[in-house]
Amino acid sequence: MSGLTSIVVPCHDNLLYTALCLQSITRHTPGPHEVIVVDNGCTDGTGEWCAAEGARVVRSPVNLGFAGGCNLGLAAAGGDVAVLLNNDALATPGWLEGLRGALAREAGVGIAGPRSNWVSDDQIIPHVPYDEAPSAALDAFAAARAREHAGRGRAVTRISGLCMAVSRTVLDALGGFDTRFEIGNMEDEDYALRARLAGFRLWVADDSYVHHFGHRTFTTLGEDYDALLNGNAMRYAMKWGLPVGGDPRGVLPARGFDAAVDRIPLG
């Protein structure tokens, strides 16, 4: 696996963070790649700025939510790997090599994710040695991790939508994200579950690190993150026939993957 990587960055305003994100990609992504910025109903000139900086921009006049924005970008992706990257995240030395390496090396792995300072479950590094981002200290920390953990990682049951490297094989099988999850939360859980049910493995790459500022779009929108999470957890449980009221994450449903129902066409 040595082809083009399509890096999809969905945005709803927050131009400052988007600019930092794109600058970090430029600094730390030496391999063949394209950057696709999704102007998801932006009102702050994000799309225009990104286009002027050379990014490919696809636009929606209204905010389609995280799932809808991702789908818009994925439909335009031409790479053999598509990486969804939050616009409030920073790429670091070795980030993409670690993700692509896992997809190429580990049998059956179709989705890979990095470690991060602000993420859930298996991907989090709760205590990091740098105080500012972007910074030389962040880059040095990430570069050291890439060297010291080269080729290491583990299979998991979920990958956060913060940063997901998805093989073309998985994209062809699953299509896009389920837009029933509206603004955001649980659409990444649903995507990971569909991948597992379709026979793909998920992998956390210890040699890939992405810094995350955390929840910037939710803050901009004035949304209650916990309320969104609880509402979408109920939608997720109902979709998969799981008990409503508990934590449905990681629980396998009784049925398998049905492409006629579970594949969501892009475009």
Brief descriptors of the model:
267 residues; alpha/beta; Spore Coat Polysaccharide Biosynthesis Protein SpsA, Chain A; 10 helices; 9 strands; globular
3D architecture notes:
Strands 1, 2, 3, 4, 5, 6, 7, 8 and 9 form a nine-stranded mixed beta sheet that branches. Helix content is 38%, strand content 21%. It is globular and about 50 Å long. By secondary structure, it is of the alpha/beta class. The model has no long low-confidence stretch (mean pLDDT 93). The chain contains ten helices and nine strands.
CATH class: Alpha Beta
Q: Which structural class do the helices and strands define?
A: alpha/beta
Order of helices and strands: EHEHEHEEHEHEEHHEHHH
Please indicate the count of domains. 1
List the helices and strands and how they pair.
Elements: E1 5-11, H1 15-28, E2 33-40, H2 46-52, E3 56-60, H3 65-76, E4 81-85, E5 89-90, H4 95-105, E6 109-116, H5 136-148, E7 153-156, E8 163-167, H6 168-174, H7 187-197, E9 201-212, H8 216-221, H9 225-240, H10 259-262
Parallel strand pairs: 1-2, 1-4, 2-3, 6-9
Antiparallel strand pairs: 4-8, 5-9, 6-8, 7-9
Brief description of this entry?
By secondary structure, the chain is of the alpha/beta class. It is built from 10 helices and 9 strands. It has a single domain, classed as Alpha-Beta Complex (Spore Coat Polysaccharide Biosynthesis Protein SpsA, Chain A), CATH 3.90.550.10.
